[in-house]
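# step 3/5: fold
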Amino acid sequence: MAFQPQQVDVVSGEQYRYALTNFQRRQLEEQEKQVAQLRARIALLEGSATDQGNASTKQGGSSVDDFSIKNAASQLERLINRWAAEVVRSPPASLDEIYAATTGDLTGSYPPLPLGTTPMQVQNILRHAMSELISSEVINVLVVTNLADANVQLTRIHEHLFSRNPIVAGVWRRQTFSAAVESCSPELTLSVISDQLPTLTKFLAQYVQGAIAILNSAYSFSRMLHGSNPSSAGSADAFYRSFVPEIGTQLHAGQIELVRRCMKSETGDIDRVGATIFPGLVKVSRGPMLPGGQGQENVQTVVKRAQVMCECALAAAGETPL
């Protein structure tokens, strides 16, 4: 009996690639459909599907737009500047001591006491210190309770959820902030200040109360950012983080807004950060979904540039505080 070879179906490489492309396209379409359905369901649960025209910045409310953020940030920046100016006008210690204490707390290094520190230098180093404090301890931490350790744990939970599913993370964050404390306790706020700026706190005396008031306003600002929906539909899965350009680092036009002219930059020379007087904000979102269900790395979009005074402007500003 003769051997009969088995028939095998063979497709060309072109046909195979065409079928694979169609399969991947159908998968992506199905994923997009499921995401759209989930977003609609979330909007219904949060009561925002019919209230987009009545945007609110209340914590746990419907939405917050970039204009509201910039307006609230401007008010907070004025509080910081007023407080720093008051410290300089009637200093609780010598300007040299205040400047050395603040610089030491920021860098962790306490060099010999400088001599001849100007009021402008002290005012702006205080503004920089407060910006660092607000950025690292208020905006970049989900301050929901009066317990610092609990707030750190909640922040880690949110980061984990966001890495897996930004939509779920957004719902969780807004629902969590709907039950947040209205204001942080004086004990927690003072603890944050003394932990981050221990040497300066010893010199501030009566001005500590002004620093506490600034942080309370910063808490409200943070709740507005984290407890509300971003106004644009395309950024509904995003959240906000803050950044502060370090003193002595090179100026980056896309990240900073100079509050005074930088003569070096205008002549093409490299200049550096003299002080950051208010933090910048970025909107963090996940990259588009790749074939196979894998997401790209986080995308950070600057929505408010940090307000900065460069080294040359700070040196040329003279004795008069802003």
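# step 4/5: annotate
Confidence is low (pLDDT under 50) at residues 48-62.
# step 5/5: archive (pending)
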